[in-house]
Amino acid sequence: MTSAPTSILDASSVPALAGSLLERLRAERIRVHAITNAAAQTFTANLLLAAGGIPSLTVAPDEVPAFTSRSDALLVNLGTLDSDRRTAVPEAIATARTHAKPWVLDPVFVEASPTRLKLARSCLAGEPHVLRCNAAEFAALAEEDATPGSIQAFAKSHGTVVALTGAVDLIADANNVLCVENGHPLMTCVTAMGCAGTALVAAFAALHGSAIEAAAAALLVTGVAGEIAAHQANGPGTFQPAFLDALFHLDPETLVTCGRVS
Amino acid sequence: MTSAPTSILDASSVPALAGSLLERLRAERIRVHAITNAAAQTFTANLLLAAGGIPSLTVAPDEVPAFTSRSDALLVNLGTLDSDRRTAVPEAIATARTHAKPWVLDPVFVEASPTRLKLARSCLAGEPHVLRCNAAEFAALAEEDATPGSIQAFAKSHGTVVALTGAVDLIADANNVLCVENGHPLMTCVTAMGCAGTALVAAFAALHGSAIEAAAAALLVTGVAGEIAAHQANGPGTFQPAFLDALFHLDPETLVTCGRVS
Amino acid sequence: MTSAPTSILDASSVPALAGSLLERLRAERIRVHAITNAAAQTFTANLLLAAGGIPSLTVAPDEVPAFTSRSDALLVNLGTLDSDRRTAVPEAIATARTHAKPWVLDPVFVEASPTRLKLARSCLAGEPHVLRCNAAEFAALAEEDATPGSIQAFAKSHGTVVALTGAVDLIADANNVLCVENGHPLMTCVTAMGCAGTALVAAFAALHGSAIEAAAAALLVTGVAGEIAAHQANGPGTFQPAFLDALFHLDPETLVTCGRVS
């Protein structure tokens, strides 16, 4: 863990993989069950529909096992912690693990609340396929600043993939670090853009065995769609519908042409 | 129930009726109280506002009787089942029945959860003016596939109107089956489009004594607005604002010209 | 309280103040914690982001003190009253008062429910910096119709600023009444426009010691953004993204040119 991060994956293959996974998501109508925060529910559902998938959003504890087991992947976002979600989250994770469904953790604002930091840590013990977070959230969880080395060490010690999103996205597992440079600043001016994009990470993880490649491919797709949308939009208001349109129409060739992964 | 479904209504009158009801909805500022799922609340409110009505959305059990009794109609959508809604739904239905307000049931994803199947059945005992569902939801409730004959039989035995939405909408009561062919595939790429459209069914049921005609007219309005919006939109993102604009400007002449009801 | 309302403020300075506060909001990335209704959460967050601020939305009682104390201002909107919010609201208000953070009360639909009328009255005892309401809500709280005189008397007796929104907004404290004439009828055709705009009142109250001027400046900003958006939009659907775009790009010169305050 003291040596420099190295990558044994071929980063240049990610754009083509992203196109292939997007086409399979559409063809197979991948189902994602998302336990997500109140402000992200509608946009998460609309992002999954625009990508060609099928969302469900139930947070009722007695319904979550049925919905999780009929889905292809699970997203757990900690942005809203009401009593239903606090009970539903561990049940959903247990169901996903029992049925060998991939699941993804998004510890929103974990730096702001001891309650959710504790819950996020207990979720991490369930070994999510991917932990998607920003630098502040990572620092709260790892108790150190986010660097390529620290996220790789964290990924290794927790048996997960860390997808650290920012101006450049860093995606690490125990042995590799990938960088995705696509995206646009307007994506930070729309609430739940990151939360909703994480649903695509979950969908891709259902289609591809390498969670680090699946995560990088999903972040590439949202980044390229964001760039296309920013070109169409006049600001953050028109950016959001333009983003869904771009995702709906996105084709593999554009991903290969525009993708910047290293 | 073994004979072929027959219609004693004049289907050709539905487009003109739809225009008349839409104008009255705007003039009378019809109020709909919607107990609906978390992902549908905002769009349901915006659809009712764009149509000229006044939405309210409270799900607090101790507030639901007051909000229901001051509204003209009630929508009950089972897509989110938290503890407040489980308590509020039967109270709202009882209030609507006591005050002779029309009410409409939307049993979202009832095929996916035994909990909501049971709740949906108990709601049905309260004889909704209209049951709005898709083919999978109908099949779970009726324990048989949706056909013109089976939905008519179900409507008769449950004392309701069945509005089965799909590529073609089928609306049946004990004696009639109407088909509404308007709509556009992009409507299935936006979350809560069906849920929100059901609020218009409730509003029209407050204005017109024949629930089957009111339901067909409301589905016609949403279908025509969807066609106009699809013509303007570049994908599912821009479709949603275009749909609200189209509904806001929709006039009776367009409904008569574009309506396809049989 | 029987004399005619008089203003000792210089209304003509409000447009320049609004521009200055908007620029500071962007530069200082003002944080607003919003306990708001389910239908308003997403739009409130997007409005604050478009204005340059940072929203948080948690309603979990055990998290609200941490989120409130790290924010610059608090918004309390009573539109959704679930058990979490009923517990969280007094805790958030107490935290804001302890930390001397400005807070704003929006008693949505208080005229429709005895439960929330009672809660709104107990919130008012916590002396919000601003009470934002419409005429029906004011009448329920004050037990008299809204007039410049009655809102000023209410503001004086409750130690608050009353911001009464409508075709013309009236903003009163014990000694002053300001009128903001900017705005557009399409703003009433989009749900949560008023709720979300109140978050900007809270943000401006964090930046400026005079709550009446901060409230008037915030309503001026939303009114001018609404006018610009209405010029771009084809109806209430396209109005909402156009509003966020307009707010994102709004500059001090436009506020001075277009502002109508007296």
Detail the topology: elements first, then pairings.
The structure is a homotrimer of 262-residue chains.
Chain A: H1 14-28, E1 31-35, H2 41-51, E2 54-56, H3 64-69, E3 73-77, H4 83-98, E4 103-106, H5 114-124, E5 130-133, H6 135-142, H7 148-158, E6 161-164, E7 169-172, E8 177-180, H8 193-205, H9 211-232, H10 236-249, H11 252-258
Parallel strand pairs in A: 1-2, 1-3, 3-4, 4-5, 5-6
Antiparallel strand pairs in A: 6-7, 7-8
Helix pairs in contact in A: 1-9, 1-11, 2-8, 2-10, 8-9, 9-10
Task: Give a description of the structure.
- Three copies of one chain form a homotrimer.
- In chain A, about 50% of the residues lie in helices and about 15% in strands.
- Chain A has about 260 residues and is of the alpha/beta class.
- Chain A has a single domain (about 10-260), classed as Ribokinase (UDP-N-acetylmuramoyl-L-alanine:D-glutamate ligase, 3-Layer(aba) Sandwich).
- An eight-stranded mixed sheet of chain A has the order 2-1-3-4-5-6-7-8, with helices on both faces.
- In chain A, helix 4 (about 85-100) links the parallel strand 3 and strand 4 (about 105).
- Chains in contact: A-B, A-C, B-C.
- The interface of A and B includes residues 38, 45, 49 and 67 of A.
